[in-house]
Structure formats: structure tokens, C-alpha cells
Specification:
9-stranded mixed beta sheet; Heat Shock Protein 90; 20 helices; 5-stranded mixed beta sheet; Ribosomal Protein S5, domain 2
Length: about 625
């Protein structure tokens, strides 16, 4: 190295504080530095590719990034044959925090009309300084490609507030970065470690990355390429086999199973990006924990940025795996946290629709596979109506249920199927929520529907009641809980409605006696023709909280207002007929309270005072 005319410069103000932040706070792990340096080298090569089109006189190169290790000197060297830098570039780009040559380069392209896609990254200006995370001192030897002389520039600094610039002899274009590693950073002097980092972060950049190895047999040094240098997702879909998609999924996720389905999509225009989304065959063991990390793997121009990027998919799609590779996605200065802006939001909207349409296509083309998906991830997808009102119809179309007519607990019926089989007099989609499938299937609320052969959806997952608060209608048909009061239910009853105006004096007297016994324990007492096998039931008022919702609140430790039910009595039931003829007031009162407890027990699955209920029942048994 022929050194001439050494100059000392100061970093911009407060550089020590900024470098301290960079080294100790901005990056979550040390190995990021190599990702950043390879990214910068890739940028430099992309620039020379572009410039060589506009300036044919530029030297044609075989692009490459080379990494070598010198254990004796404790140095790690990253060398590229890209555009290089002038002295002015070095001062502007390496002497100033948050000043980016790439950003300036992009700005210069705005006034040039061309169809060339600029595969450029590194728009943030601080990536280079991540070198000081692992280095005591950093040297940069560079030569600008348009410089026809052998003169280059040496930049050196220990990151303490000053840097030196020296004119040197450098015959080849490009940039060489020499890191003098700290004592505690021995792992970065190991070839296997460097290979692992490159495979993890830079496997899919389009420039070959080579590492120097020693050939023991021939006693010479060789260059070995350690990255694939082509991302699978940038290839044309027609050229990618199913096996390649499956193998890439396994590489991406460490899942031993093949994916159930995938969607590969390229979007061009204002926001250019490629997405490759997968649906796993089986749910991860921690899928039910909404707080666990999930999301897509993020790349910018084939350079790995972060795992589990949650900004692109909502929680209810946390089972989706895959990658997004953006050409113009804005990131914060460390590239590790996405900025919350319109581009990110637009990408999220597009990816959500892409995911839902992928599932919709699967449901139409392969019912068996879709059923497998639903059995694994249906509970997660049920979170969707509450989280994503914009795509409510798409989500609702993907939901699956069981019902009276289904006769099995497995959820296989779509809402479209339910509507196509609706009764001619039926105005709404009827459903019931309960603690279990058995409890829902045997609810006394179903008696009329079984008699009329009207199907009812049986909802027994804990999330169902919460979901139905947001799932209001589907294809113009409103949802109606059959355990709540509703006028449409009366239209399903062929018999004339039962009320105090068209019933006998005996029934009227009976109702008045029941009202007197129960008083404020219930909201109202009335007769019903909805029941065939059961003497009485309780209903929630249309404007009040349902029983299942109250249970959810209780389980979450939330206060629940007192629930007062509508008490409906079946006048045709033999037990009601017998009780109505009891004249002794105390005995009559015990029977009515027993009936109410029975109805509450059937509705809630528990009683506030089960011992009192049993005692009352035993007392009445003795009297029979």
C-alpha cells in the first residue's frame, strides 16, 4: 500500500453518542453487521451494472463479493468490484451518520427515463457503522469505477469521533472493507460462522458471495461460493416445480411436513413486491398463544431483513407462513422495525386478501384439503370477524359449522350450504351457542326446529359467542340466536300464537299465579308453542346479554350484570297441566320454582344454589 497525504476529519456533531447508540442499542444481534456490509456491496455492484448500460466505456465485470479471514491479524475482509467511491463520496457517505449514497443515487435516477428496475437497498446510511459492533478499527479501501488512474482512497477509524482519509494506490475498482475484530469476537474469524450468517441473511441476493478457503491437498487458497445467488420467489412460477415449492417451505420453516397449499404472486406498479405464502399442514404447538411471534419473513431486494414480521398479516392469519420481498418498502434506520405508514398498510391489505382468496380457492377446488385446514386452524380463523370488518364477507365464506342436520360434531357446513337448504318460511340463519356439542345438540330450544325440519347451526367453541357479535349477516340473511327472543321465530309456528287473550280462564289464572310466585326473578312469563318435549324454557331478551356471553365475561374476571330471563311455559305438557291444578299455594310455589331451576340449569349448565334445587326436588318426590 502506497500511502500519500493523510487527512484527519471529525465526524458530524454528536457522532460519539450516535455510534454508541448504533453499537449498543440499534441492532438486536451482532451478526447483523455482515448482512449490512454485504447489502452495501450488493448495492455497489447494482450501481455499476446500471452505470455500465449508460456508460459503455466502463469496465465490464463479473460481479462478486469476496470474504476472507486472517486469523493472525484478526481481520475479516469484505471485498466487492462495484461502483466504488470518490474522495467526496467517502466523506459524505462514511463521515456522516444517516447519509446514504444509495439514497442519493436513487434520487439521481428520478430524472432519468428508463425501464431498468433498480435492485437497490441500503437507503438508510447507517448500515456501514454496524461494523463497529464487532470491530476495534475499520479500514475502507475504495476506487471509483470511472476513475481511469490507479488512485484510490483509504478511510480508517476506530469510531471514536474522528476518521482519517489517505490517497493510496488501488488498481481495481470497488471497495474493500477490513475489520479488525475485538478480542471477544473470535467466532467471526471462523469460516463456518461466516457461512452460516451468509446463508441466513444473504442467501438469495443476486450477487455471488465467495469465501476464501485453503486447499490442503494443493496447498493453495481457493474461492468457494456460499450463497445461492438466486431467490426462488423471483423465478417465473412456470419454471418452479411443486417439489421446489415444498422444499423451500421446509427450508423456510423447519417444518418436516409439506405445506397444504401456497400462493406465489408478483405485483408491479407503484408498490413492487413479491409474496410467497404458505398454509402449513399442521398447526404449531403454540398457535393458540396470540402473543407469540408470528408473521412473514421480510426481504428487501433479496436481502433478509427480519423473521416474524407481524405488520403484514393480522393475528387471525398467524398460521400463514412465507416471505415478502419488497422493492420500495420503507424501514427504520436499523432495517429491523417497519415504519407504520401507508405503504406498509397497503401491502398488508393486499396480503390479507391474497391469503383469504388462497383459502377460498382451496375450499372450492379441494374440499378434503380444506376440511383438513379447518380442523387445524378453524378456531384461529374464527377470530377474523372481530378483527377484520373490511374482509368480513370473505372470512364468513370460509367458516365451517356443524348443525342439527349434520348429525356429527365435525364442522363441515358452509354458510352458503346452509342458506341453500333454508326452509321456505325461514327469514334468518338460526344458531345456538353452548358449552359443548352435546349440550347444543340436546338443547330444548331446538324442539320446534327439529319438528319443522329447520336446520340450526350448533356453536360450541368458546370463541363462537364472541364471533357472533361481529357476524351480523351473510348474503342478506341475518343471524339469530334461538335462545333469544325474536319475532321471526313466531312465524315458524303453525298454531295460532298463545297469549292471555285467546286462552281459557284456567290458563290465564295459572299464568297470573306463576307471575306472582316468581315476581322479579324473571323478566316476564308467557306461554309458548315452540316446545314439544319440555315443560318450560328461559329466553334472553333481544336487547340483553346472552348466557354464553355472560360466561365469557365471568371467565375473564369481568363483572356481569344480573341476567333476567323470559320464562316460557308449554301449556300442552302433562306436567304443566298437573301443576296448574294444584290449589295448595306452598306446594304450587315449590313446583314453579323447581320448573324455573330446571329451565335455568338447561340454559346455563349450572345453578347458583344446586343444593337448594336438589332439596326442593327431593321434597316434591316424597309428596308424589
Amino acid at each position: 500500500m502506497n500511502i500519500q497525504k493523510k487527512e484527519t476529519h471529525s465526524f458530524q456533531s454528536e457522532v460519539k453518542e450516535l455510534l454508541h447508540l448504533m453499537i449498543h442499542s440499534l441492532y438486536s444481534n451482532k451478526e447483523i453487521f455482515l448482512r449490512e456490509l454485504i447489502s452495501n456491496a450488493s448495492d455497489a455492484i447494482d450501481k455499476i451494472r446500471f452505470e455500465s448500460i449508460l456508460s459503455p466505456e466502463l469496465q465490464k465485470i463479473t460481479p462478486k463479493i469476496q470474504i476472507s479471514i486472517n486469523k493472525a491479524q484478526r481481520t475479516l475482509i469484505i471485498n466487492d468490484n462495484g461502483i466504488g467511491m470518490t474522495k467526496k463520496d467517502v466523506i459524505e457517505n462514511l463521515g456522516t451518520i444517516a447519509k446514504s449514497g444509495t439514497k442519493s443515487f436513487l434520487k439521481s435516477l428520478e430524472n432519468k427515463k428508463n425501464s431498468i428496475k433498480n435492485e437497490l437497498i441500503g437507503q438508510f446510511g447507517v448500515g456501514f457503522y454496524s461494523s463497529f459492533i464487532v470491530s476495534d478499527k475499520v479500514l475502507v479501501r475504495t476506487k471509483f469505477a470511472k476513475n481511469t488512474s490507479n488512485e484510490g482512497i483509504l478511510w480508517e477509524s476506530s469510531g471514536e469521533g474522528e476518521y482519517n482519509i489517505t490517497n493510496i494506490i488501488k488498481k481495481t475498482q470497488g471497495t474493500e472493507i477490513i475489520l479488525f475484530l475485538k478480542k471477544e469476537e473470535d467466532e467471526f474469524l471462523e469460516t463456518w460462522k461466516i457461512k452460516n450468517i451468509v446463508n441466513k441473511y444473504s442467501d438469495h441476493i443476486t450477487v455471488p458471495v465467495e469465501i476464501q478457503i485453503y486447499d490442503e491437498k494443493n496447498k493453495t487458497y481457493l474461492w468457494e461460493q456460499i450463497n445461492k445467488a438466486q431467490a426462488l420467489w423471483v423465478k417465473n412460477q412456470s419454471s418452479i416445480s411443486d417439489q421446489e415449492y415444498q422444499e423451500f417451505y421446509k427450508y423456510l420453516t423447519n417444518d418436516q411436513n409439506n405445506p397444504l397449499v401456497w400462493s406465489h404472486n408478483r405485483v408491479e406498479g407503484n408498490h413492487e413486491y413479491i409474496s410467497l405464502l404458505y398454509v402449513p399442514e399442521k398447526a404449531a404447538w403454540d398457535i393458540w398463544n396470540r402473543e407469540n411471534k408470528h408473521g412473514l419473513k421480510l426481504y428487501v431486494k433479496r436481502v433478509y431483513i427480519m423473521d416474524n414480521s407481524q405488520e403484514f398479516l393480522p393475528n387471525y392469519l398467524r398460521f400463514i407462513r412465507g416471505i415478502i420481498d419488497s422493492n420500495n418498502l420503507p424501514l427504520n434506520v436499523s432495517r429491523e422495525i417497519l415504519q407504520n405508514n401507508s405503504i406498509t398498510q397497503n401491502l398488508k391489505k393486499a396480503l390479507v386478501k391474497r391469503s383469504l382468496k388462497m383459502l377460498d380457492k382451496l375450499s372450492k377446488n379441494d374440499n378434503k384439503k380444506y376440511q383438513s385446514f379447518w380442523n387445524q386452524f378453524g378456531l384461529v380463523l374464527k377470530e377474523g370477524p372481530a378483527e377484520d370488518s373490511e374482509n368480513l364477507n370473505l372470512i364468513a365464506n370460509l367458516l365451517r359449522f356443524t348443525s342439527i342436520n349434520n348429525k356429527i360434531a365435525e364442522q363441515t357446513i358452509s354458510l352458503k350450504q346452509y342458506i341453500s337448504n333454508m326452509h321456505e318460511k325461514q327469514e334468518k340463519i338460526y344458531y345456538i351457542t353452548a358449552d359443548s356439542y352435546i349440550s347444543a345438540k340436546n338443547s330444548p330450544h331446538l324442539e320446534l326446529f327439529k319438528k319443522k325440519n329447520i336446520d340450526v347451526l350448533l356453536l360450541s367453541d368458546r370463541i363462537d359467542e364472541w364471533m357472533m357479535n361481529y357476524l351480523v349477516e351473510f348474503e342478506g340473511k341475518k343471524f339469530q340466536s334461538i335462545s333469544k327472543e325474536d319475532s321471526s321465530l313466531n312465524k315458524l309456528v303453525e298454531e295460532k300464537s298463545v297469549n292471555t287473550e285467546d286462552t281459557s280462564k284456567e290458563i290465564v289464572d295459572f299464568l297470573n299465579r306463576v307471575k306472582k310466585v316468581l315476581g322479579s326473578k324473571v323478566k316476564s312469563v308467557r306461554l309458548t308453542n315452540r316446545l314439544t318435549e319440555t315443560p318450560c324454557i328461559v329466553l334472553s331478551d333481544s336487547n340483553e346479554m346472552t348466557t354464553q356471553m355472560a360466561k365469557l365475561f365471568t371467565a375473564a374476571g369481568q363483572p356481569v350484570p344480573e341476567l333476567k330471563y323470559i320464562f316460557e311455559i308449554n301449556p300442552k305438557h302433562e306436567l304443566i297441566k298437573k301443576i296448574s291444578k294444584i290449589n295448595e299455594s306452598d306446594n304450587f310455589e315449590e313446583w314453579i320454582k323447581l320448573l324455573l331451576d330446571q329451565a335455568l340449569f338447561a340454559e346455563k349448565g349450572n345453578l347458583d344454589n344446586p343444593h337448594k334445587f336438589i332439596s326442593r326436588m327431593n321434597k316434591l318426590f316424597i309428596q308424589i
